[in-house]
Amino acid sequence: MYGTIIQDAYEKSNAQNIVNALDELCNPNDSYGWASAGIYTFWNYYTKELLYIGLAVDLTERFQQHNGFIKMSEKGCKINEINQYFKEYAKLGYSIFVQSPLSQPVINKNIYKWHKLDPQKFGVKDFTHEQSKQDLRVVEGILIEAYRKRFGRYPPWNKVGGSIEGQKRTTVGNYAIVDEMTSIEPSILNARYSLRELAANPTYERYENFLHGVRILILFGMEYDTALEFIRKNDILNTYEEMVGIGYFERPLYI
After folding, report:
1. For a Cys-Cys bond, which of 7, 42, 123, 243 suits 95, CB 3.0-4.6 Å?
2. Burial 193-228 (b: 16+ CB within 10 A, else e)
3. Tens digit of pLDDT per residue, the chain (255 long)?
4. C-alpha span between 104 and 30 (Å, rounded)
5. How far apart are CA 242 and CA 236, in angstroms?
């Protein structure tokens, strides 16, 4: 259940701050915030050129792999491309397209906590979680293909397209999601605060979780006003009124 785009931009020297923020907002062991599994992009902070679209069952771990915190084959991550980028530019844009915690798959970090199993006897492969991964592949395939349809090529750091099923489902309108992942202009899908700001402020995280429900309905085809009214009817905290009162919707994104 996708809905929210959260953005940030980081320097090579403060990449650990992004790791910490991802672990706070997209922790696979939490039932609040967002799921650890989602879509992410790297983009040129200065030109807004999208560089890469990827998927991850654990956004924190995947970011660590790309940025050298977790060692792995250079063929399996973008550490070379990122290091080359930082030779020319100071800041790299990073966005995540996140899901509700209800879409959290079973992974190594949560299997033993959730199910109280003996790690000597059971592993992640013993559980049926392939659908979660397949859904990720489909969404990634849709967004990569949407980019290809727009520009006639893949993003510079993507060597191949996404899933065939995702490619078949792609429509012209899907590019709007890709475009908003590199834009800091106000948008219903884009969070008003950066990844690190949301991780540091539980109130703003709550606001964006409220809006996440609205965004899910919009992506299913519902009009904004109708979706907002539906979510407000089930909100006993009067979150929308609180947000309007502090001018939350007028706040530009700073990254």
Report:
1. 7
2. bbbbbbbeeeebbbbbbbbbbbbbbbeeeeeeeebb
3. 899 999 999 999 999 999 999 999 999 888 889 999 999 999 999 999 999 999 999 999 999 999 999 999 999 999 999 999 999 999 999 999 999 888 777 655 545 455 555 555 555 454 445 566 788 899 999 999 999 999 999 999 999 988 889 889 998 889 999 999 999 998 999 999 999 999 999 999 999 999 999 999 999 999 999 999 999 999 999 999 999 999 999 999 999
4. 9
5. 12
Q: Which of 210, 194, 220, 216 has the alpha carbon at shortest distance from 99?
A: 216
Query: Could you tell me where the beta strands, DSSP code E, fall in the chain?
Result: 2-11, 38-44, 50-56, 91-99
pTM score:
0.89
Contact assessment for residue 51 and residue 42, using Cβ atoms and an 8 Å cutoff? yes
Contact between 35 and 104 (Cβ < 8 Å) = yes
